[in-house]
Amino acid sequence: MNTKPEKPASAEREATAISGWAMLTVNLALLFGAMGWLIWIIVQAAKANNPALLVWLVAAIFLEILAVILLRGHFTLQPNEARLLILFGAYQGTVRTSGFWWANPFYSRIRGNVPMHPATVNVHSDSHNAGVTSVVYITRATKISLRMQNFNSEKLKVNDKRGNPIEIAAVVVWRVEDTAKAAFDVDDYESYIHIQSEAAIRHIASLYAYDRGDEHELTLRESADEVALSLKKELQERLEKAGVVVEEARLTHLAYAAEIAQTMLRRQQAEAVIAARQKIVHGAVSMVDMALRELAEKAVVKLDDERKAAMVSNLLVVLCGESETKPVINTGTLYS
Q1: Per the omega criterion (within 30 degrees of 0), is the bond before 8 cis?
Q2: DSSP string of 186-238?
Q3: Is the full-model pTM beyond 0.85?
Q4: Phi, then psi, of 97 in degrees rounded to 5
Q5: To the nearest whole number, what is the mean pLDDT of the chain?
Q6: Structural domains present in the chain
Q7: What is the pLDDT of residues 33-50, one digit of tens each?
Q8: Residue 209 forms beta bridges with which residues?
């Protein structure tokens, strides 16, 4: 079976640009020199009444137009900003150094137009009741920011590993590393980042339980660092195609969905009560054992098995009871 070869990814390459200040001097000299020459030719042609001098007007006008065109080659770059150099659709390289530069004035200043997300649609009705739909487009410039950027996802409703509906959200810190991939391998890299980030968050949420994991099992609530590392790794794999590096990814919101929140709250309260009871009983048994052992070792009183059982029962009631126990004084003998 024949399969089409996978399209090779674009790769950024460094391009050089000329100092803008040096070229500005040359371009201004050419502009005003051509303008002065043009005026001189017109004046000389008028004085000498020699139309042949007007032939030089073509050369002067050409130089004037050339100077105006060359002035369009100037551009500036701020720190952590890059510009793609595209000549008639062909990628020539990327300039990353900040400053005032000059390059071929025919390098494109836009990478194309894409529909606005979400698309804005205007419907107009004419006299024949015919609808006309128009979509608003946004222009993608050749300048790309290399700064750190944050993406805060919306609260997503997903199912965890055990199928419980939960609400989850995350923040992703990213930056563009390869400008060629960001510009040419995906249609709109910012939209691509948002969609792929939400997909990765949904997938990570389905791999872990919200809480109450088995022994040594990672959970979303108790293993925040491990979950963050897994999310970052998956995001990096997804966003590699867009030339983006993920610096950090971390959950910012985690809760049960509204329809089961009350049920899960009651379950957590019951678990807390059970855990507290276990500690109380464990402590009470230890105290009873200590009391019986101390009485036996110091020969304070000799108790048979029945009396020991009664004493254990009374002590456990006193130690494990929720309300305060009122003491009853025995005025008789121990066996009455």
Answers
A1: no
A2: SS-HHHHHHHHHHHHHHHHHHHSBSS---TT--BTTT-HHHHHHHHHHHHHHH
A3: no
A4: -75, 130
A5: 80
A6: 18-107 (no CATH), 110-141 (no CATH), 148-256 (3.30.479.30), 265-320 (no CATH)
A7: 989 988 888 887 777 776
A8: 219
